Amino acid sequence: MSSRSLSVWAIALLAVLAHSWSAWASVCSPSAMPAGIIPNATLVSQSQSWVNNNQNIITIYGTVEILDGCTFIVHNFTFLQAPESYWYGGMVGNTSAAQVVDTPVSSQLGPGDSPKFQLTTAAGRAVSFADFNELRLFVPASSQLVASAVIWKAVATSSAAAPATSSTLSPSGSSAASPSTSAGFKTAISSQLWAFAVLSALAGVFLIK
């Protein structure tokens, strides 16, 4: 097979992968919210004290409100003596999770509203609320799950009116397990990005020849 033919095949494969990746990517839209949103979802503490300092009791309270398809806020938020923490998202009953907000969560002497948190739209990490139904406040440095809140539940509707989520997103009960950043709903996207990079390099080689 000539170099030109190989390059044509490589480009065709890249096009297929690009289409496949776009089907997996999940970018939030302010107007798109899953059915079954829980108004003022309560933050439930999942740890009594900090892993790195057992003498320090964790103090965290608040209720999560989904403002639109990309943004949420925590009302009556209190979070004392907090190390660097981030919002992760996962499905209830599944320990896999991924970081869903790029901004760290700071200590706050409440009660009062938290800043508004925006779901990440970064390439390869973009998420929407349809990807997860449980927010988890997590400390990556110590792998400690601080608190969680179930933000939506699947509703029983006809197939025509079903929420815009896949069949794998059905909640199954509350979970206090720590998020797993190496697995979960981002695995498929990561694998496809690796394949995309490899094929891009091959296509470049063939085109140069």
Can you give a write-up of this model?
- By secondary structure, the protein is α+β, with helices and mostly antiparallel strands.
- It has one domain (27-185).
- Helices cover 21% and strands 25% of the residues.
- The strands form three sheets. Strands 2-11-10-7-8 form a five-stranded antiparallel beta sheet, with no helix packed on it. A four-stranded antiparallel beta sheet has the order 1-5-6-9, with no helix packed on it. A two-stranded antiparallel sheet has the order 3-4.
- It is globular.
- Mean pLDDT is 74; it is low at 5-25, 158-178 and 180-208.
Explain the layout of strands and helices.
Layout: H1 3-24, E1 41-42, E2 44-45, E3 49-50, E4 53-57, E5 60-68, E6 71-79, E7 86-90, E8 97-99, E9 117-118, E10 134-139, E11 144-150, H2 187-208
Antiparallel strand pairs: 1-5, 2-11, 3-4, 5-6, 6-9, 7-8, 7-10, 10-11
Helix pairs in contact: 1-2
- Spatial sequence of strands, sheet with the most strands: 2-11-10-7-8
Distance between the termini: 13 Å
Let me know the average pLDDT. 74
Largest sheet: 5 strands, antiparallel
Q: By helix and strand content, what is the structural category?
A: alpha+beta
Write a compact overview of the structure shown.
It contains 2 helices and 11 strands, in the order αβββββββββββα. It is of the alpha+beta class and 209 residues long. β5 (60-68) and β6 form a beta hairpin.
